[in-house]
Structure prediction request, 527 residues.
Amino acid sequence: MPSTQQPPVGIDLGTTFSAVSYLDNSRRPNLVINSEGDRVTPSVVLFDETSVVIGKEALKAAALEPDRVASHVKRDIGSPHYSRTILGEQVPPEVIQSLILEKLKRDTEEVLGPISEVVITVPAYFNEPRRKATQDAGRLAGLDVLDVINEPTAAAIAYGYQHGFLDEDGKTARQERVLVYDLGGGTFDVTLMELDGKNYNTVATAGDVYLGGIDWDKRIVDYVAEVFQENHRGVDPRQNPAGLQRLLRDAEDAKRTLTARQQATINYEYAGEGVRVVITREQFESLTADLLERTLFTTRKVLKDAGIGWTDVTRLLLVGGSSRMPMVQRALHDASGIKPDRSAAEDEAVAQGAAIYAGLLCSTREGEPASMQIKNVNSHSLGVLAQDPGTLRPKNSVIIKSNTVLPAVQGRRFKTSKAAQKQISVKVIEGGDAAGNNASPIGRCVIDNLPQDLPAGTVVEVFFKYAANGRLQVKARVPSINREVAMTIQRDSGLTEAKFQVWREKLLNDEGPLESQSTALRKSRGA
Ligand code: ADP
Ligand code: MG
Prediction:
């Protein structure tokens, strides 16, 4: 690798914790220790009076100044705004994520010198708008996002690396059918992969972007809050943001204790009153049984989609901090008969896999032969939403089914309805049922400059393509005149290019990115 070039870098941008890994000269993944001396950085941002603080210090402030602190932003990425206002501002999630990435970039540069090219991980279950928004967050942080990679794929690559799948001689190569169960802080992902020598193929994937450790914490919060109410005249500490944040922190502590011990005690004070609540592991498990069942339901769905049963699975790989909970390991063992493997569960495994993938991208760009092959599937079906001419009801006409091997292209024919029509517009969605209920809108694919004088009924062929990383591209042509026509995606969510530039300028003025960000927010508050 030429010395002028930066080493390959992979970023695990987690809902609760983030980690960075890079490949050293001998192509071994190494973890970046952050400026606080830690292996992982809490994905938490504090908008302080004079600056923006990211990570551990921001996490500490969450209980004191909840209205200044953004956490679990990854859950909202792809939506127009972060779920809470920060200092009265509606901040796009991309912007907050970019501040976290900026800090990770700075800490990495302390070790490696200037970097820009990175791979960022995303849950396999992320839909297309969430993938795009993650890439935008990277750009906003001054990073050149070479690609996004699915977290279970990255975990499987790390697993493969640890077990010698990537050895030059390939002698240790063996085929495995690996089920990756990733229960993190805020998202749940389950993916079936086939590992064969240098091939990492995803077979099926499913998940839940609103299910993770935080939901287990909240059950403890509710339990303690109810005890508090019973003892203190119905006062509910959850109504107060600071009271809630403190209780959440205590609940998370208790949850971790319950991983190691049979019971945990919470001493919680609020508004001058206190309660002492003892929770046993058994109680905790019954308070959260339905959450666990949701993950098992999704796991069964993946096996079904892949057309296999547990006996076909050769390895059950547990990833994510929440898979440390004994209830998770026990339930999976019981369901599968397989002893869960947590060898890819260290905090850095996903970042490691991302760094190895970044290394692959860099070396193939240099013309070296690929050291491994990675195949993805799309986590959501791609459909066109139109009116059913018979029933006049909305109809989701699926173009690319979920769990199709990527890249995938499908053409669809549309007809102009009148002579000399200039425009065609198609509404595209991901997921949803036959009527398009519960789908995520992507936006409209629009052609607004069809060639002159086409007769009514002219066929326009639109090609929908998922790239290998799940990003959507569209193309169109008019077969009768054998011409390509320009087609754009007008998105329903995400930062527009114009807004992106505004935020970029706010972030990148002379004062340095982080200072200016908070200045911008303070100014808009009239401070
Ligand atoms: P993410 O990738 O979503 O940021 P992680 O994989 O780092 O998340 O997992 C973080 C989650 O794991 C948090 O909800 C945290 O409370 C939980 N967690 C970490 N350690 C333990 C433990 N020992 N027992 C139970 N839960 C844990
Ligand atoms: Mg994770």
